[in-house]
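To whoever is on call:

I kicked off a structure prediction for a single chain this morning and the downstream step that reads the tokens threw a length-mismatch warning. I double-checked the sequence; it's 41 residues and nothing unusual in it as far as I can see. Pasting both halves so you can look.
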Amino acid sequence: MKYYVYGSYKSSGVFIRGFSIQQIILEKQKESDRQSANLAN
């Protein structure tokens, strides 16, 4: 499994330090999953 670590990653105006891109993507997916679940309810 390959992942790249950025010292700081800018995402919607927020700097995240020492996160791997995959981790960020997973967080975003969880977030949109939650939003989808909220819409479904």
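Update from on-call: the warning came from a stale cache, not from the record. Cleared it. Sanity check on the structure: The longest helix spans residues 21-40.
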